[in-house]
Amino acid sequence: MKDKLMKESISQWTKRLDVMHYVNRDEHKSISTTLCGKYMLGNNYAEENQDREDCKECRNKLKEMGE
Ligand SMILES: [Zn+2]
Q1: How remote is the CA of residue 29 from the centroid of ligand 1, in Å?
Q2: Ligand 1 mean position to 24 CA, how many Å?
Q3: From ligand 1's centre to the CA of 12, what distance in Å?
Q4: Number of helices (H) and strands (E), helices first, in the chain?
Q5: Which of the two residues, 67 and 13, has the higher pLDDT score?
Q6: Which of 16, 22, 42, 62 has a 20 to 30 A CA-CA distance from 48?
Q7: What is the C-alpha to C-alpha distance for residues 59 and 54, in angstroms, rounded to an integer?
Q8: What separation in Å is there between the alpha carbon of 11 and the centre of ligand 1?
Q9: How confident is the model at residue 2 (pLDDT cuts 50, 70, 90)?
Q10: How many domains does the chain have?
Q11: Using one digit for the tens of pLDDT, what is the confidence trace for 41-62?
Q12: Residue span of the structural domain in which 31 resides
């Protein structure tokens, strides 16, 4: 997943207790929602939670974008 993230301006986003969501930085400069439409409020805990399970909806969106 990492290679793909670098290539397509995708970043990770999660709360303290949440699955790992993904964000398209190109598309969401002003909207600030994840790929599954969740608002990114508060701090991002993605860096310290790399082992977090992926959000299924975000992963489906990534798949649509990638293939
Ligand atoms: Zn999500």
Answers
A1: 17
A2: 11
A3: 10
A4: 2, 2
A5: 13
A6: 62
A7: 7
A8: 12
A9: low
A10: 1
A11: 899 999 999 999 999 999 999 9
A12: 2-66
